[in-house]
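An example makes the point: we print one protein in full, the chain in one-letter code, the fold tokenised, without further comment:
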Amino acid sequence: MKKLLLVPLALIFMLGLAPSCKHNPYIPDGILIVDSTDLTQPCDPNVVYFINQVQPILVSNCAKPGCHDANTRAEDIDYSSYQSTIQSETVEPGRPNNSKLYEIIIKTDPNDVMPPSGNTPLTADQKDLIYMWILQGALNNGCTETTCDTANQTLSANVQPILSTYCYGCHSSTAANTSGAGINLETYSNLQTSVANDKLMCSITHAATCFAMPKGGTKLPQCQIDKIQSWVNAGALNN
């Protein structure tokens, strides 16, 4: 009688494990990942962080009104948060080439590529970040830069890369009139106007008198804000 009970009990135990095993992310050997939303942990240059690097790309370029924000949910896909990104079933942790999110951003057909025509295309670096984030387990992680060098900030080397990640999805020459309220931060003359009227710093610092930017996203890391402020304080030069 005891032997007969072993089979159903074993089956119950295995079935109980099945759901948890099904969704375990595949992590390639040799990759060290810290899964944490604790932003106080120091940034590791070998790790791609969702909160610091991937989420700004998705919010700026994908989670926009009419596309994949929480309200529109085009094709029932919402990239406005980590939870909704994972629930979209377009990310397969550990397998970027099997993930619809990555597959769609590397397409070359203008009828299929995302962001669609009329929007600023993702850069090669942005695509690589999304690839590596998925490869490393597509974790909800974040970090803080332990050192922040704000000296001698230039537009080309320091400020534009930040704006490209957080702002150009809506406020580029291509997208400004369709999703950026006509505000173009990609050309120096227009950027200079936003600096002169204080709307740039007012928005990215989330001051009460301005619209908080990035729209629908988290505030820029303080180090990024400090770098832009340093450039502004030095005369906001086209350097």
User: Anything to note?
Assistant: Residues 2-22 form the longest helix (21 residues). Residues 1-28 have pLDDT under 50 and may be disordered.
